[in-house]
Design goal:
The chain is α/β, with parallel strands linked by helices. 37% of the residues lie in helices and 20% in strands. Strands 6-7-8-9-11-10 form a six-stranded mixed β-sheet, with helices on both faces. Bound molecules: manganese (II) ion. Manganese (II) ion is lined by residues 29, 86, 111, 130-131, 161.
């Protein structure tokens, strides 16, 4: 018997009107978990405001229910509870939450090791592969139904956050749950076609420029690879900033490299740094030193400065961690 969700299930059963939200700048796990939970609650007869202030990336617009997302909660409350899924910090929530009297009990369901337990009820499991897996567990523990649309959302959440089941967070249970979602109607090739084999032409043109910036650097006991993308590069191919998503994995993928780093210029003298580790270096710990967060193998933060200087700072910090 799975008792982890008892308090959350009690609130869910007693309530009628909910908000479900996730983190800003959403990816597959954020939106898949948000929409999977939203659709499951609606199927159970609940009223749900699916709240996402940021735009849905084009690749994820096929997710069932994404056309019902809204950036506002105006006129829909008061709410019995707000579910936050896949969000490590309250200030990263993609919902304009008002007073607790308006938004109800805050239920935090997440798997970020850096989660600061901002909820009234917190179900935070850093070992879980994805928030999608936790939402699946919640739905099962609550005895809610999963139809094809819900299965698709949760399959996208789990498969994207595990790098298509490549990461070591993919446990036997992860595969069992994914298999169950496929049995319930999720279509792996349909999902892959939408999410992985669906590159806008200008994304690949941007990628060819970014690959030209690849550099392998020595950090004492291990190697890191860096790449960067500037506002000028985005402009030159007419690409949106989210089209650089995922490039960082190619930096980590270089033979002999332990950590991949991607510097994305977000404004003049401002960079968003994404880090990917093979497992030896805890990049969440490094991100936290710069005020960011994430997971052991995937983390990020924002930093100000000129690129060469910013890269030297990172190199110095990385060089201190590998001993
Ligand atoms: Mn996640």
């Amino acid at each position: 018997m799975d008792r982890r969700f008892d308090a959350a299930i009690e609130k869910m059963r007693a309530g009628k009107n909910f908000i479900v939200t996730s983190h800003v700048n959403p990816e597959g796990d954020a939106l898949g978990s948000l929409l999977g939970l939203t659709l499951a609650l609606r199927l159970a007869g609940k009223k749900v405001t699916a709240c996402m202030e940021d735009n849905v990336p084009d690749l994820l617009k096929f997710l069932p229910g994404s056309d019902t997302l809204t950036g506002s909660i105006d006129g829909a409350g008061p709410f019995d509870a707000t579910f936050a899924v896949d969000c490590g910090q309250k200030d990263r929530l993609a919902a304009p939450l008002g007073s607790p009297a308006e938004t109800g009990t805050l239920i935090n369901i997440d798997h970020h090791g850096t989660n600061d337990e901002f909820g009234d009820i917190n179900i935070v499991e850093a070992e879980a592969s994805s928030a999608g897996e936790l939402v699946y567990d919640f739905i099962m523990a609550a005895g809610l139904e999963i139809n094809k649309d819900i299965a698709t959302c949760l399959y996208v959440a789990i498969s994207t956050d595990t790098g298509s089941f490549r990461y070591s967070s993919s446990k036997p249970d992860t595969f069992r749950k994914a298999g169950e979602l496929v049995a319930l109607g999720a279509d792996p090739w349909d999902v892959a076609s939408h999410v992985y084999e669906n590159h806008p032409e200008n994304k690949l043109k941007l990628f060819s420029k970014v690959l030209g910036t690849l550099e392998v650097i020595s950090c004492d006991t291990f190697k890191a690879a860096t790449m960067y993308v500037t506002l000028e590069m985005f402009d030159s191919v007419g690409a949106d900033k989210d089209l650089a998503e995922g490039f960082v994995n190619y930096a980590r993928g270089v033979t002999g490299v332990e950590v991949g780093l991607m510097f994305r210029e977000s404004g003049p003298g401002e960079y968003k740094v994404s880090m990917r580790s093979r497992g030896l270096i805890d990049v969440a710990e490094i991100a936290q030193r710069f005020g960011g967060g994430g997971h052991k193998n995937a983390a990020g933060f924002k930093i100000s400065g000129e690129l060469p200087e910013v890269r030297e700072r990172l190199k110095a910090v990385l060089s201190g961690t590998g001993q």
